[in-house]
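Following up on my earlier thread - several people asked me to post the actual chain instead of describing it. Fair enough. Here it is, all 207 residues.
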Amino acid sequence: LTMDWHLPGTFSLNGVIKSIALTELVHSLSPDGSSWFESFPVITLLNTSVAIQRWQDGGYFLAAGTQVDHFGTFEIEFSEVSKRTAFTFGFSLQPDWRLPMLSSVFDVALLRDLTFRNATLIASSSDNPNFSFRGLAPQSGNNLTPIAPSNPQGVKAGVYLNAELLLTADSGDALSTVAKLLSGLDSLVLSLAIPADYSQTVFMAQI
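Reply from S.P.:
Thanks for posting it. Predicted structure:
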């Protein structure tokens, strides 16, 4: 734990949390939460780097980052929105990540075995058109970014997956037919948007 305080200015605190559940971290700082977050998978954060800053004008910034097995580089940030603490977190997903790790809803034929490249999973409790991750996650060159095909600026309340969906011509499923029709292409740009209003969920793939 380290502290840096320039009287009467900015107060900074940095440290490491050995082990904490993502749900516990979110509920402790943003008790209002969000309806979709209650169904988010159980994830334990290990050796999480934490940074807290409090500015002279009363504003603050709190972020945490680490690596999560089977998900990848993780970062979460908290901020004050309309007098409530809002949160946004994201994963730079690793190649072995699959949709059923997000929800058992996706554990069905075709969806369960989809493979991705350059995938990011971003979730937010509120709309923030100016949001961008500050790169606290310790792995150099692996910082998260909210810039994605279906969400080019900032973040919106809900869960968003953006990735390249890999095509395999010899897999024997519907995607293999697509791969054969699109000879020469090895991937499609995929966007999955699950906003706060579930009825507005969108699953889209494009060339």
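Residues 137-151 have pLDDT under 50 and may be disordered. That should answer part of your original question.
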